[in-house]
Backbone:
């Protein structure tokens, strides 16, 4: 169980804690590296105590962080858009495809390391 901000208990399976931590922290920081680092530091104890190995937990957190790592407030968004010569409007159209790639890698990581 995890306590959310309003003090309500939410029953979240251990399988989903790692990817959700990565997704939320990467969204907050707009960085895969920072999101994975913060997510792993925050939930490492919970994941390890539940029997998930450190490598598996790290892989799932990192995979989750790739789901929304290319948000407009991050450097990756502007670096890739600038490298391809895209305007911001054109670059925004690619976000759903990048999210699909990140979600696919997250599902595969969970299947490989937990199931």
Residues:
């Amino acid at each position: 169980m995890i306590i959310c901000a309003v003090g309500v208990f939410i029953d979240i399976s251990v399988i989903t804690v790692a990817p959700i931590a990565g997704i939320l922290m990467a969204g907050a920081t707009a960085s895969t590296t920072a999101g994975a680092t913060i997510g792993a530091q925050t939930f490492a104890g919970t994941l390890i105590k539940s029997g998930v190995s450190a490598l598996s937990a790290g892989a799932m957190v990192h995979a989750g962080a790739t789901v929304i790592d290319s948000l407009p407030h991050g450097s990756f968004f502007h670096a890739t858009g600038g490298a391809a010569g895209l305007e911001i409007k054109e670059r925004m159209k690619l976000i759903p495809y990048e999210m699909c790639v990140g979600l696919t890698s997250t599902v595969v990581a969970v299947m490989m390391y937990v199931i």
Summary: The chain is about 70% helix and 5% strand. Strands lie at 2-3, 9-10. Residues 56 and 109 are 8 Å apart (CA to CA). The longest helix spans residues 95-113.
